[in-house]
Amino acid sequence: MPLTQFLALADAIEPEHRYRTVYDADFSVLVPGKEVIDPDTLAAFSRIDFTGHTVVDLGCNFGFFAFQARRLGAAAVVGVDREPRVLAGCELLKRHFDANGVDFACHNIDDPACPLPEQRFDIAMLVEFIGKTFVLENRVAPALAFLERLSDRELILSVQKIYWIKKELGTTPERMLKLYPAQYVVGGDFLLLDYVRDFFAPRWRMEALSPMADGYEKPRKFLRFTPA
Ligand SMILES: C[S@@+](CC[C@H](N)C(=O)[O-])C[C@H]1O[C@@H](n2cnc3c(N)ncnc32)[C@H](O)[C@@H]1O
């Protein structure tokens, strides 16, 4: 019954809020979304040691990574999103999966009065959250700063390493140089991963959980930050 209710709710939600394909426990597709989970993403995520840890997942959408963290042994997970109807869907999926230990909370992390940072978690996650709009609106640093307030032990992020400034961001290197230091605007590229790494240094040390080649790569990379 919760599954039937979930499918009806997901059908009624605007497509822009259905970000991630929703999977059943056996990974069959329940609701197609804009982004699928591929084997590389699953492999990178499974390299995180969740065993016995408390976890917060910011911008959880329908909770894929929150549920998966619990399946991988987390003691307690809180999925956070600002969309109440998305969270209503998460609650129905929680009943469908019989997933105790996973809770959901409505917060807007852009709100300076957001009370979430009063809590601390072993692992704080920001997965597939920072994208083109964040880069263009110079909102990457505030999102990273918010994440950092939630854990002093481990931060997990996924970002696209490099954006092509003209083709992907639809702007010019000159405009990007008004927003970011020159070392992150190199030729026609914006070096997001370097920017994120340097934001957290020297407090945190970065480790790539995804395989990483030199130069441009489209798939987002999972990164783990631990205290330096
Ligand atoms: C691109 S989706 C990523 C979903 C999820 N992390 C995943 O990878 O499956 C971003 C999610 O963050 C939520 N979101 C966007 N801005 C937010 C904010 N300021 N506070 C809380 N949630 C936000 C959106 O509603 C959406 O569900």
UniProtKB/TrEMBL annotation:
InterPro entries reported for this sequence: Methyltranfer_dom, SAM-dependent_MTases_sf
Statement: the UniProt record of this protein carries the keyword Methyltransferase: yes
Transmembrane segments: none
An annotated GO BP: methylation
Gene Ontology MF terms: methyltransferase activity
Keyword line: Methyltransferase, Transferase
Top-rank taxon: Bacteria
Domain (Methyltransferase) ranges: 52-127
Protein name listed in UniProt: Methyltransferase domain-containing protein
